[in-house]
Amino acid sequence: FDLGVLKSRIAFLRAHLPEQVELCYAVKANTFIVRELSEWVDWLEICSPGEYQICKTLKIPEEKYVISGVYKDARMIDQAMGNGLPIGYYTVESENQFHLLRDTAQKYGRKIRIQIRLTSGNQFGVDKSVFFQLTKKYRNDPYVEIGALQFFSGTQKTSLKKLHRELMYIKEVLEELQEKYGFCP
Prior knowledge:
The longest helix is centred in the C-terminal third of the chain and has 22 residues, at 160-181. With 185 residues, the protein is of the alpha/beta class. The protein has 7 helices and 6 strands; from the N terminus they run H-E-H-E-H-E-H-E-H-E-H-E-H. It has helices at residues 3-16, 34-40, 49-57, 74-82, 95-108, 128-138, 160-181, and strands spanning 24-26, 43-46, 65-67, 89-92, 112-118, 144-151.
């Protein structure tokens, strides 16, 4: 890998995206450059116990971790919360996963930051009604802070029309959330 080219590409992205946009690297894409990338991006998305262990072994600060994906199980969550270090974010892929995260946070007396993943019509994430229900019920919870909405619609997109429709959908969801509940992650 040419790390100079990679660093330049990240700088290019930062220069062309709005200032408030943060960059997250999916560790599963390539674990061999995680140490370097951890210094250049805001977040590292960790989707398995193996990826979690790689980042811990590399001594990457846990506040940069986004513990994500459907493979989060009770053991991995317990290990992440039980060490007392602050994890950046946990993603919520289902209502059951939300309750696993919240119950574990309560067990350790911690407040965790979560991102609720809104489905794009695929098998990942929760639908809008569940997103609103969780937000309404838990937005002032002592154990979870709903800090972000996550939306993944797939890769290899070439249709600007489709991307525009998806962005407008997210905008509508956020506006409705603000209007109904006075809340915007």
